[in-house]
Amino acid sequence: MVPEEGGTDPTRQEPENVRAQLDRILASPEFLAPERGRRFLQYIVEEALEGHGDQLKAFTIAQAVFGRDASFDAQNDPVVRIEAGRIRRALERYYLVCGSSDPIEITIPKGGYAPHFSSGEGSSNTEVAAAPNRVAKPGQLGHEAPQPGHERPMRYRDLLLPIGIPALFGTMAVLALIRPLESYLSPSKPPPAPVASTSKSKTRIVVEPFAALGGAARGSDFAKGLADQLIAKLMKMDSIVVLAPGRFDMETIGSLLSLQGSTLVEGTVLHLHVRLINGADGTVVWANQYDRDLSNQTILDVEDEIAAKITMEISNSRKLSGAGPAP
Question: Does the pTM exceed 0.85?
Answer without folding.
Answer: no
